[in-house]
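Methods: example folding runs. The two proteins below were folded one after another, and each record is reproduced exactly as written to the output file, sequence line first and structure-token line second.
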Amino acid sequence: MEHYFTNNENLKSELRNLTLHIADTSLTFVSDLGVFAKDKIDYGSKLLIDVYLKEGRSEVSLLDVGCGYGVIGITLAKLLHTQSTLVDVNKRALHLAKMNAKEHKVDVSIIMSDGYDSVSGKFDCIMTNPPIRAGKATVMRILENAKEFLNDSGELWFVMRKDQGAKSAIAKLKEQYNIEIKEKSKGFYIIVAKKLLT
């Protein structure tokens, strides 16, 4: 099985269109083999966007970590005019994200980066549907290191399933953040983490 956090130059391409129905609108995204949620928009990502649309702020600087083909960062750039930066380690995902950004006529920055390795600056919001299959260490690195790239009033928004370690992640993150569970739906938790200011 090809994991979506690896790059296989020999993987064949089978483009397909997926539609996100959200906030009384529909957005179409191009997907392909070898990327996360290749056959349908992930419920966790959709829930994360949906909750943010109700409670988040518009026109903020936003970093989408592990962006895949760009659903989170592009949707929020389109609907809330966020200044979105999208990062992923998967070259094909980034290529698709560029296609999708062009299709939706949004001006976003798309960067190849393993977590925050190629990221600079600070953001008002960091969002992630973390790559669970990459392992707990990778996931926790993304969540714990977010604070280094958040403005003082910035927020980390992420989605995680209860049966994939949400509660243990929350317990660990409470050492570094103020944590709020914004939503629970179908086993998914939408979690907001704010930096503990010393």
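Second run, written to the same file directly after the first:
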Amino acid sequence: MGKVTVAFKATNYDDLSDVARKRTKRKPRCVEAQALVDTGATRFYLQRQVITALGLRPVSEIATRTMSDRSEKRIVFSPVELEIQGRTGLFDVIELPDTLPNIIGQIPLEHLDWVVDPRGRKLVPNPEHKHGELADDF
């Protein structure tokens, strides 16, 4: 399978909330960038420099397992509104060093109803949902 990268837009959800509640007139901080799509990863991971540009706040710490089967502690940051190809959702952000790419894992993909087309090296709408984005609620 070839490497799949995708453009995304992330907007600080705290900023969006403040605007909606009329606490500020300042435009919400947002970043447009590229991310590696990794179905082996779980969540939404951003480089430290992107987190800083968005002004996200740390909320907790989690233990993660790396590909080399090492356990590492990573910081979880406040949520962003993530937009990929016109579909949006709210996701907490896991910090990555700037030496690694931004990563979109399986949970955001499923939530936004995207699947990986390995031949086309792109994201496509879930073919099981012929009439558009659909959430499987059980």
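Comment on the second run: The helical segments are 13-20, 48-54, 106-111.
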